[in-house]
Amino acid sequence: MYRQAIQSYLSKGFSIENPYIMTCDLETTGFSEKKHDMISFSAKICDLNLDIKDEVTVYAKPKKERWTQAACDHGHRIQLQEALTFPDPRKTAIQLLHFIKPFKSEKNAPILFVSHDTSGFDSRFLKAFFMNQMLIESYWKVFQDDYRLSTIHMARRLGVELEDNKLPTWAKKLGLELNHHEVKSDTDVCFAVFKYILENSNVQQRMEIT
To answer: What is the CATH code for 3-209?
Structure first.
């Protein structure tokens, strides 16, 4: 149902070969994937009708030396002592691979990666997470760097008039409760934003732009 609308937002040259989409959010110990760790991740897998097929929320133990209190105070609010009780990151990475496996394409066509950020922050951290666990080859069988969509960029192209494109502003517009920086709550709202944009897209107009 939404294939044309989704296709219209993709960069030229990208075609939909895998019928599944992953909308996600994650929290980290800082802002650099080279210096900091992912500590929580949540995702919804849906098809091209936006029917949710599965969802997951996982946590991963960070390294003490890669912890920053600022990320805790101004973001996820998870304290270090709690984070150190989270599962070993390799165990979490394997759990994520098992979660994604049913939605892999036989030809390894990538799953579309959707997040509410403008710089590829979430996809960079997820890739670094798998790389740090020596599982990057498994990552490449599911995702592709440029095969992703930002709901912020999509909203700007659609011309939605909001005071800003921050997730709390969107939650208010859509009448949704949001526990901001809690990964499952953020993912729920991100998916709702994605769905709203597609439902309100003039497909022909969007395709003329691309």
So the answer is: 3.30.420.10
